[in-house]
Design brief:
The protein has 110 residues and is α+β, with helices and mostly antiparallel strands. The chain contains four helices and four strands. It is globular. It starts with a helix and ends in a 5-residue tail after the last helix.
């Protein structure tokens, strides 16, 4: 499934933007087309997971990132960047509908 593809991609040398969302979250629904457009525009690999629809074991895989800076506390949408299984950065987008902010937040990708 999608998580298996994600695990492969985060280990193959390219940056991967991962969004942890929730199926019932209105902000997440608004955010998805915005971040998808950015990912397409800049040819960024994007994964968008609705965490409430994952099994506990899949959720553990997704959120068990080996970095002191990884800071997923349950707030969604939570977005992070990972490459070669190394955490690069994250943000909980307060202004998730302002794409210019995303571009500034992910300079390594562009």
């Amino acid at each position: 499934g999608m998580l298996k593809s994600w695990k492969t991609d985060i280990n193959n040398g390219r940056e991967v933007v991962t969004v942890i969302a929730s199926s019932g979250c209105p902000h997440c629904k608004e955010y998805k087309p915005v971040i998808t457009d950015i990912a397409n525009k800049y040819n960024i690999k994007l994964y968008f997971f609705e965490v409430d629809l994952l099994s506990e074991s899949d959720k553990d895989i997704l959120t068990n990132i080996d970095s002191d800076e990884f800071d997923y506390s349950g707030s969604v949408p939570y977005t992070f960047v990972i490459r070669n299984n190394q955490y690069i950065g994250d943000t909980v987008f307060k202004s998730y509908l302002r794409p210019s902010l995303h571009v500034q937040l992910f300079p390594t990708l562009l």
